[in-house]
């Protein structure tokens, strides 16, 4: 092997080593920091990059994607002295590879510890009930504090979420009992309310019924009174008409009507289906009076012959009557 | 082994070049593809002109260095080179956008709600509720001015 042979081989090796050292392909999602003799000079972005071999070397390879940190479980004492176990997650993204590399020694650990201590302080200022029901508020407060704290490291914390809040078992059991008692109370109140409502409704119904009945009675009374008034008016008119007729005409006509009514009434007695014994006081004078009236009319109408025929039929054909039947029906009410 | 290489002669370069190119697929990001290209060139030239293996090696070294400007040109970022230019550059996407101040800027620091998170912004003192425009980004720090 001559010197030139060795030179050629070494040259090729040197070129290859140099190229591999000087050409850096940075994958998407990462930024690489470059140190010249150990001092940070620049940040390589994704793609092919050229650096000066032998002087420069890649320092840190920083993940620029959003990352998730699990915040480990820890015990937190709330304002009302309940001990709860809490864990969570934090999402952060590096925006400045240089700061994230050199401003903080261990970024993940730093963010984790910061979040843990802040969970303590935020939850420690709240009651257990608040802690359990105001997670949004807790997340918001944590985010503001932690995000402000990590900004010197070129990092942005995008969200912090409390995952689990576990109160101790006996507390959970007590909460369960409280819940049950609440429900039972509500059920009892509802039942009582229902009872009350139904009672009220029934009473209302009864009241309404009575009012309506009374109204009905009142209405009926009014109408009765009206009827009686009308009746009286009618009677007055009838009486007036009769008395007018009488004053104009003959008393004998009146007598005829009375006798007619009397006989019709008697006929109705006779047709009634029950057994009866009709006792009639014999008042011959009134009967005769009425008959005489008829006779008078007959005479006046048919002349002498008809009147004698009627007189021949008289004995036994007409029952004797007692008194005059009333001309008007008795008043009601 | 050496006999085999010697018997193959210039074919070695071609074989070596293709093997390097194939290795690039398996181990990306190392400069293997370009070394493979240089090896292929050396092979082609050796077919045309008979040169000693030492000269071939030197040629290989020269070509390998010469490929650097080639890929530099390829790697030069074009404005429309990527379908998502703001990948992993979330803040640069915010440049020129307008938001409403959630907390007032006092002593050069306030907050703005963007998406579902809170961003701290720097700028001249402004009361809360003002429309502000992102005028400058530096890492996670946004600088705003009244819109």
Automatic annotation (TrEMBL), chain A:
It is a single-pass membrane protein. Belongs to the band 7/mec-2 family. One of its GO terms (cellular component) is plasma membrane. Pfam families: Band_7. This is SPFH/Band 7/PHB domain protein. It comes from Bradyrhizobium zhanjiangense. The lineage of its organism: Bacteria, Pseudomonadati, Pseudomonadota, Alphaproteobacteria, Hyphomicrobiales. Residues 322-333 have a biased composition (Pro residues). InterPro entries: Band7/mec-2_domain, Band_7, Band_7/SPFH_dom_sf, Stomatin_HflK_fam. It is found in: Membrane. Residues 21-179 form the Band domain. PANTHER family: STOMATIN-LIKE PROTEIN 2, MITOCHONDRIAL.
From TrEMBL, chain B:
Keywords: Membrane, Transmembrane, Transmembrane helix. The chain crosses the membrane at residues 12-35, 41-68. It comes from Bradyrhizobium zhanjiangense. It comes from the Bacteria. One of its GO terms (cellular component) is plasma membrane. Pfam families: NfeD (PF01957). This is NfeD family protein. The keyword Transmembrane applies. It is a multi-pass membrane protein. Residues 92-144 form the NfeD-like C-terminal domain.
